[in-house]
Amino acid sequence: MTKPSAATSADVLVLGAGIAGLAAARTLADKGLSVIVLEARSRIGGRMWTDSSLGMPLDLGASWIHGVNGNPITKLAKQFGAKTVRTNDENSIVFHADGGEMTDAEWAEMEALFEEIYEEVASMQEDTDEDTSLQEAFDVVLMEYDLSEEQLRRLNYYAYQVTALEYGADMKDLSLWWWDQDEEFGGEEVIFPDGYSQITDGLAQGLDIRLGKVVKTVRYGSDGVEVETSAGSFVADKAVVTFPLGVLKQASVEFEPPLPESKQAAIDRLAMGVLNKVYLKFPEVFWDEGVETINYIGEELGEWCDWLSFVPFTGEAVLMAFHGGDKGFALEDLSDEEIRAGAMKTLRVMFGDDIPEPEGMLVTRWGKDPFAFGAYSHIPPFASGEDYDALFEPVDDVLYFAGEATSREYPSTVHGAYLSGVAAVGEM
Ligand SMILES: Cc1cc2nc3c(=O)[nH]c(=O)nc-3n(C[C@H](O)[C@H](O)[C@H](O)COP(=O)(O)OP(=O)(O)OC[C@H]3O[C@@H](n4cnc5c(N)ncnc54)[C@H](O)[C@@H]3O)c2cc1C
Hints:
Blueprint lengths: L7 E8 L3 H12 L4 E4 L11 E2 L6 E2 L4 E3 L5 H8 L5 E3 L4 E5 L7 H24 L6 H9 L6 H14 L1 H4 L21 E3 L5 H8 L3 E3 L4 E7 L2 E6 L2 E10 L3 H6 L3 E3 L4 H9 L1 E3 L1 E7 L11 E5 L8 E4 L1 H4 L3 E7 H7 L4 H16 L8 E4 L12 E3 L7 H7 L6 E3 L12 H13 L2
Parallel strand pairs: 1-2, 1-12, 2-9, 7-16, 10-13, 12-21
Antiparallel strand pairs: 3-4, 5-8, 6-8, 10-11, 11-12, 14-20, 15-18, 15-19, 16-17, 17-18
Helix pairs in contact: 1-7, 1-14, 3-4, 3-5, 9-13
Bound molecules: flavin-adenine dinucleotide (FAD).
Flavin-adenine dinucleotide binds next to α1, β5, β15 and α14.
């Protein structure tokens, strides 16, 4: 490749300053290579984003270290002196659609019903000749049951919690065979009361990161790589590509020559789901101060059904609600005012008409975010875990790939993205 004279050069270019890109850049810099990180946004961190506009640090992207035992992020948290606090989703209160509280016995019954049905669904993972959606498998099993409307609503609510709110996709969009193929670290779930960005900030120290550089074209060949951005060109021997799957699917970055067929097919097959957060800051706490999670099994599945209280973690009168899958995408089409009204309507059902209006609100719209196009990847029907491997596969010893959607073991997580960045450098 003829290096354009106006281009800035480095040994390796890292495209994207999320956790995967920062992990790759850190590892390369520690090996003594010259590295430039090119980032489209005016901030680092990507889908790890601590916002302080409500007067306290609140995470708009990732919040948790999912399983602290053996998790590389636990080590980084210690290294950077970032405080973590354990969360316990069993410390919860559950409301029926009419605002009445669910008893422990009712919850146990709902859980047992789900587990019984899921056992049969799980056996279909082994027994079916062709993949289908998780929803279709549930529907087949449900034909053997004669459930009341209320039982069905509770079951759907429970299923929504373990699918849409974790995988960012509804059951109809998840592969029966592969949806839960990911691995987990054991141990506690913890959050960062002072924000997850402490991890990305710690990794970024001393790195050459160029913000506001939207990558438009990646030209690569046997003699290196040339990257054209919205503000200048960069050349290097190699590049680590960490664009989110959503960005690759939109083809908003051009690769010349086009990516190999096997990688492109994996990009096309895998899917990007969504999880959106709504934070509400109140003048006072009007809910039980000791409770962490507030669940609502409303008439409309997935609407305002899952809330986290920040009182136990930070003492702040803040509630955060999640919307995942189709409900998460639908939320993005509402105005902030409509979202606030929807939230307050549900809170009034649970806590009465006298509760105060919020003083501040934050809403995420990850599906519309032009540098993410979704929250994280999942495996829809007919895709497979192997597609994550295909995404990771380097091209021509020049392009290396990292990011949550290149991690077959730990997709859609911070630790998966981090480990993929380190692993991409290991391939060089
Ligand atoms: C709402 C939400 C909640 C989550 N909760 C958790 C959680 O609790 N725990 C957990 O482990 N994980 C969670 N995740 C997932 C986790 O945040 C991601 O898996 C991880 O941060 C992805 O890191 P990454 O480096 O692969 O991608 P990103 O962080 O998206 O980094 C990619 C970077 O590339 C940049 N980029 C994109 N296009 C271009 C371009 N054209 N030119 C230049 N730069 C570009 C982006 O701006 C971004 O900075 C959550 C995600 C979301 C959205």
